[in-house]
Amino acid sequence: MMTFLLLLALTTDFNANAIRAHVKFLSDDLLEGRGPGTRGDALATNYVASQFEAAGLKPAGDNGTFFQKVALLGITTEAPKTELAFGKRPALKYRDEFAGGDQTQRESSTLDSEVVFVGHGVVAPEYRWDDYKGLDTRGRTLVMLVDDPPASASEPDLFKGRARTYYGRWTYKFEIGTAKNAEAVILIHTNDAAGYGWQVVRNSWSGEQAYVKKAPGAHGLSFAGWITEQVAQELFASTGHDLASLTKAAASRDFKPVPLGIRLKGRVGSTLRSFETANVLAKLEGSDAKLKDEAVLYSAHHDHLGIGVADPSDPTDTIYNGALDNASGVATLLELARAWSKVSPAPKRSILFAAVAAEEQGLLGSHYLAEHPPVPAKNIAVGLNVDEVYFFGNVKSVTMLGVERTSFYPTAQSVTKEMGLTIVPDQAPEQGSYYRSDHFSFGKVGIPAFTIKQVPDDAQRPQLRDFKDKRYHQAGDEFDPKWDFASAKQVAELAFRLGWEAANAASLPQWLPGDEFAGKR
Fold first, then answer.
1. Rounded (10°) angle between helices 4-11 and 486-504
2. Ordered structural domains, the chain, with CATH
3. Adjacent-strand bridge partners of 129
4. Residues 401-415: pLDDT tens digits?
5. Which residues partner with 67 through β-bridges?
6. Which residues contact 50 (CB under 8 A, 6 or more apart)?
7. What predicted TM-score, i.e. pTM, was given to this entire model?
8. Which residues, in sequence order, are CB contacts of 26 under 8 Å at separation 6+?
9. Mean model confidence pLDDT for the chain
10. DSSP-derived secondary structure letter, 91
11. Rg (CA), the chain
12. Is the dihedral of CA 163, 166, 171, 177 positive or negative?
């Protein structure tokens, strides 16, 4: 066991200036927002690989390299070739009133289908919930609410109460619509339900979207996207319905789908691009003859949104630099890799480092890694993910989404206590944060995985609010020389200590009995 003094020496050796330099480079305009499969993406992955190699780590990718290739299909919706209209209403304005794209993986699709409101669009047998009630969904347009069916006074734990489950995520809505052979799925955006404003939807869906290539003959939605709340209100009113009333009705198990008596007509034109991106993987081999075949996994996504819609405050700025999201996480990962490379002797279990691709496109890189890990998933002790490190100063509290659902929780509590930190619950459980970052991909294959997040104090909250409102998934997420990078050292030290405990534990951590991922372990 590493002595306390040696551990202290290592964990106080994290270099804030190194993290600063990594963030500054990765979020530079030169990398053009690190969109998957672009020149900037290649620059980022090569930079990360070079840093891993400089630290003396072993490659853990394909064929003895640091790269695990991920083949994808990029789809960009072409605004001049795209037009959607409900019934006799005027065509919707792309980006201003609707956003989304064609998931058939064709260059063009024509839509002409009956529109049906299906409430939350959820089928959850464990909650005795079915919003479809035998509806023939084939070839129809399904309009849905974003979020879970709400809990009630009689069932306060329905769909985990205030916390959002995967059923409330937009990814689930599109998946269930695809499985039911719908022609289109359209989600009604509200700030509260989505957890972010319309500008995030507009910006996130207006550029290229990446997908794993479909098998021949596999069904895809001709349109998967969003409409604004105002459009939804006007649409429902034009058909003799009230959105608020139907939203209330959809909160009951007795809800039945409501045909709106109109058709969605239009066309979607797309540009297709086959390309490769890569997860960047490195390994520090463990020192125990048996346990070195097991590992602790550190991850952070290296991609962002590339080049998109101009920032309203600067019409000339179209580069989505992704400084906090997530150059910050990759920079912290690189500093963790450097620190771990200095540990001698190495911990009992091996340490894996993964800068994963295409997170913004739906966790595609981490999903591929989870299905093709360099160490079997059942042998990975924990997954420690870093996504959006805030450089607003040191904090007193952190969240580790999902850690309380694992046998690793007492260890995490002990480590944070030693650092003068407190683990607090998810600060916005209604946003379903567990299902929105790369740790979810690892949880789905049974790895106890979670993201380490700082919880800003009262004085820091205005900075976080400014980021969420004005910079998150916008061109304004840029490097700021005034940032306090000492806070990144705090995150790195915490991640290091947690990894050390997991790498030397007597047994592998587990999901607690009854958890949704326990059976996968």
1. 140
2. 4-74+274-520 (3.40.630.10), 75-272 (3.50.30.30)
3. 124
4. 899 999 999 999 999
5. 280
6. none
7. 0.85
8. 34, 44, 47, 302, 322, 323, 327, 330, 331
9. 93
10. P
11. 23
12. negative
